[in-house]
Automatic annotation (TrEMBL):
Signal peptide: none annotated. This is ATP-grasp domain-containing protein. It comes from the Archaea. One of its GO terms (molecular function) is metal ion binding. The keyword ATP-binding applies.
């Protein structure tokens, strides 16, 4: 039986374990996160695995797990980094002809006059978001240049306090009354999608309390998500699509998406996931 090291959250592991076992893949949770690890005696047998899913989100911890396991990954370090870099993702997508929000990348600290000039180029309000955070952390809607300066001041304080390799952020157009979709693309095909809604709010992040409801997407949005995954070269990708009026854009992507309830996916989802795991193990 093929052995899969799942370096994702425990919830994702629990959801995928039995369906993959039914398809001849033994999944086991592996992690060194928030733990003391003896490198000569890790909490899992490094020789017991054939393939990994997916490269850990904390990259230094991921480097340790990767060195211990020495296996190919469904979504390796390159894929995770490529997706996490919001500005890099948007630049790649735009170059491939995938529509994205109008965005300015700011490498902090930047000249304040230049930041204000960038803000002036938008109709306003704008969305300000750290380049590398996940789960909607640090995302703010800003209506005027003075408020933008205040937000960047807070970002300066955070960056001074925490050891981070990325002090940059994005200034991005705000799409009013946008419908927010998370589209799951697996090996070049859409396998499920949800509409995310936060009553009374504009940030539709499930980790911040938004509801996610399974939906059937129109063909044009399915094609948009598949094009995004193809442009990034990522086999298992969550693609965040915003639709506002006649405008549909890819806002962000996630190469470490949580696996949701099976009811949120199309028939055959785990068959396709098992096939991807098997193909990756052969690399």
């Amino acid at each position: 039986m093929l052995a899969l090291a799942v370096a994702h959250d425990a919830e994702t592991f629990q959801r995928m374990r039995d369906p993959l076992a039914d398809r001849g893949i033994r999944a086991e949770h592996v992690s060194v996160r928030e733990a003391v690890t003896d490198l000569s005696a890790p909490p899992f047998d490094p020789t017991d695995f054939d393939v990994g899913f997916v490269f850990p989100g904390r990259l230094m911890e991921g480097g340790v797990v990767d060195a211990l396991l020495a296996v190919p990954w469904v979504n390796d370090r390159t894929a995770v980094l490529r997706s996490r870099n919001k500005a890099g993702t948007l630049a790649r997508l735009a170059a491939a002809g995938v529509p994205v929000p109008e965005t300015v990348y700011v490498s902090n600290p930047a000249d304040e006059d230049d930041v204000r000039a960038a803000f002036a180029g938008f109709d306003g309000p704008v969305v300000v978001k750290p380049n590398s955070t996940t789960r909607g952390v640090g995302v703010a809607k800003v209506h005027d240049a003075d408020s933008l300066a205040g937000v960047t001041d807070y970002l300066d304080l955070i960056h001074d306090y925490r050891a981070t390799g990325d002090k940059s952020y994005l200034v991005q157009e705000y799409l009013p009354n946008a419908t927010d979709y998370r589209v799951m693309v697996l090996d070049g095909e859409v396998v499920g999608a949800v509409r995310r809604e936060a009553p009374g709010g504009w940030k539709h992040n499930v980790h911040r309390g938004a509801d996610a409801t399974g939906v059937d997407l129109p063909d044009e949005l399915r094609e948009l998500a598949v094009d995004a995954a193809d442009a990034l070269g990522v086999d298992w990708l969550g693609v965040d699509v915003l639709v506002s009026g006649d405008c549909a854009v890819v806002n962000e992507t996630n190469a470490r998406p949580t696996i949701d309830d099976e009811t949120k996916y199309q028939a055959g989802f785990y068959d396709r996931l098992a096939a991807l795991v098997e193909r990756t193990a052969e690399q």
